[in-house]
Write a structure and sequence with these properties.
heterodimer, A: mainly alpha, MetI-like fold, 2 domains, B: 305 residues, mainly alpha, 12 helices
């Protein structure tokens, strides 16, 4: 083989490999586009089916046997109240647990056990939490199929998310901040409460928002505890006109939430109900997406702004 | 007077010490909630399943080919639910693993910085969409679409549920795989480029093999998500238990069965009520197996360099 032919062969080989490079670049883009297009199809499909149903009446009407008159009043009020309970339980517990694991925990088997549990719980399917709530909250504790049960169940579900976010936020705070506080005679808790927690707040918020976005769309555990799907009344208002002004009766009230209402409408055979489901889904997607987008934006801003 | 001053300060200091201890204890108790949750899950699943298994033998549970606990002629074989779970998860993984891996390689080795900055949050958003919405999409968009291509496809089938589930799992697979590939030291890539390798050759023959255990952990997380996914299959795959390996048939998964029972009203303490805990125990054991496997894989991937 002549030198020229050898050179030609090598050139061909290089050309082939370069072509593979280009082909993969294209394949990768296509794979990414499949994800994007699915999302666009999902959103546009729901928009076409659901947008005509979106009006003020849809938000202020109870579910009904007549699809044209049905709305999501009880569903969104239920969702808001359940989220309130979830946040009240998951945020203090999750942040406290995260602070303990990062700042206080000694290196021993108990800490290892807690850490393994947090990792493991993040991988437990949500429906298992539903079974836990059914057995424990509904029957053992006698809380019934109430807002309190649902809120606590979802709080347990998002607890690992809050704990992990808190730990990561705390871990990114440099040691010199703690040393500075200790040097001025602060105790451990003073250091934590006055320095660590305020600096970790944006990171913790990101985790909390992502967790809440997950909780608001979670359906399986709420169905498992046996929440009713047809609720045409509102829970008692938390604020009363007469003293003592605050009432906690709503905690024990039966309820429905957005995803349950959507599931109920999706599983009906009539197409008119499917349009209601699409409209409810649209509200749900816009809610979760804007919460997630807020979290991503917070994280992005934090990364840009904070330079220790 | 000065003695009084000192003892006063000492008392304050002691009080401060007590307060510190109380706070530490409170934080410790909050951290213990996760342990209590695990104990609660194990306790509830085991006690309810135990009563179930005093009525139904384990052998019957594992070998009977019918699951009809709510019929007069009751059979308690988990196999039909298991087959539905495996088929729908299999379809989902056939979508999620190739696409997720390609996206991960592309984003980690090929994509320009600006595209990566946009694509990563977008994929995160895709993973944040409620599964009930994916279920709606599978039943009322994907199934009619597939039926247009393939008219004999029933309205409920494992195929469209699996396909949509696959799309849902892509972000889990791609983001963990990408993290694993980015953790591969730059020197390996530089060595490969210095030898004249192209980007594709470097990505596939150097970076991906070096990140194998991390990528495997991502796949395993995907499997455990698919097995535990509930709403998509409950809506789009139908709820009849059906021992089949054919994805074009309707079938129930373990999770769909739990939803179906929870939607009806079975009295607390009946055998039918206990079946969902036996089914839940099976599901928990499957996901626990995959989670532990994934954990072991990740441990290995951390030790690699």
């Amino acid at each position: 083989m002549s030198e020229a032919a050898k050179l030609e062969n090598i050139r061909k080989l290089i050309a082939v490999h370069k072509r593979w490079d280009a082909v993969f670049g294209l394949v990768g883009l296509v794979a990414l586009m499949i994800g994007v297009l699915t999302f666009v199809a999902l959103f546009v499909d729901m928009l076409i089916d659901g947008a005509p149903r979106l009006s003020l009446d849809f938000f202020t009407s109870f579910p009904s046997r007549r699809p044209g008159e049905a709305g999501i009043l009880s569903a969104w009020v239920g969702s808001v109240l359940v989220m309130l309970v979830t946040a009240m339980a998951a945020v203090p517990l999750g942040v406290a647990a995260g602070v303990y694991l990062e700042e206080y925990a000694p290196r021993n088997w108990m800490t290892d056990l807690i850490e393994i549990n947090v990792t493991n719980l993040a991988g437990v399917p949500s429906i298992i939490y539903g079974l836990l709530a059914l057995g424990l909250f509904v029957y053992q504790f006698g809380l019934g199929q109430s807002i309190l049960t649902a809120g606590l169940t979802l709080a347990l579900l998002i607890l690992p998310i809050v704990i992990v976010a808190t730990r990561e936020a705390i871990r990114s705070i440099p040691g010199m901040i703690r040393e500075g506080a200790y040097a001025l005679g602060a105790t451990k808790w003073q250091t934590t409460a006055d320095h660590i927690l305020p600096y970790a707040t944006p990171g913790i918020m990101t985790g909390v928002i992502i967790g809440m976005a997950r909780a608001i769309g979670e359906t399986a555990p709420i169905i498992t505890i046996g929440a009713l799907t047809f609720i045409a009344f509102l829970p008692p208002a938390p604020v009363q006109p007469d003293p003592p002004f605050l009432s906690f009766e709503w905690l024990m009230s039966p309820f429905t939430v957005m995803p349950i209402q959507m599931f109920n409408w999706t599983s009906r055979p009539e197409a008119a109900f499917h349009h209601n489901a699409a409209a409810a889904g649209l509200v749900l997607v816009v809610m979760t997406l804007s919460m997630n987008a807020l979290a991503i934006w917070l994280r992005y801003r934090m990364r840009k702004k904070i330079k220790w | 007077m000065s003695a009084h001053f000192v003892s006063d300060r000492l008392a304050r200091r002691r009080l401060r010490h007590v307060k510190e201890r109380v706070i530490e204890l409170a934080l410790f108790l909050a951290a213990c909630v996760s342990v209590i949750t695990t104990v609660g899950i194990v306790f509830i699943l085991l006690t309810e399943s135990f009563t179930f298994f005093t009525h139904v033998s384990l052998w019957q549970f594992l070998t009977d080919t019918q699951w009809t606990p709510l019929f007069a002629d009751a059979h308690y074989g988990i196999l039909p639910l298991l087959s539905g779970t495996l088929v729908s998860s299999g379809v989902a993984l056939l979508v999620a693993i190739p696409l997720g891996t390609i996206i991960a390689i592309y984003l980690s080795e090929f994509a320009p910085f600006s595209l990566r900055e946009v694509a990563k949050p977008f994929l995160e958003l895709l993973g944040g969409i409620p599964t009930i919405v994916y279920g709606y999409f599978a039943l009322l968009f994907v199934t009619p679409l597939l039926q247009a291509l393939w008219p004999s496809l029933p309205g409920f089938n494992l195929l469209s549920a699996g396909l949509v589930m696959g799309i849902m799992i892509i972000p889990y697979v791609s983001s963990l795989s990408e993290d694993a590939m980015r953790a591969v030291p730059m020197s390996l890539r530089e060595g490969s480029y210095a030898m004249g390798a192209t980007r594709y050759q470097t990505a596939v023959r150097v970076v991906a093999p070096a990140a194998t255990s991390g990528i495997a952990a991502a796949y395993i997380l995907g499997v455990s998500r698919a097995v535990g996914e509930t709403m998509i299959v409950a809506i789009a795959a139908g709820m009849q238990p059906n021992l089949t390996w054919n994805p074009t048939e309707p079938a129930a998964t373990i999770t769909a069965y739990i939803v179906q029972v929870a939607l009806g009203d079975l009295p607390h303490g009946s055998l039918g009520y206990q079946t969902i805990f036996a089914a839940g125990l099976t599901l928990a054991l499957i996901t626990l197996f995959f989670n532990v496997l994934g954990h072991v894989m990740r441990k290995r991937f951390r030790q690699a360099y």
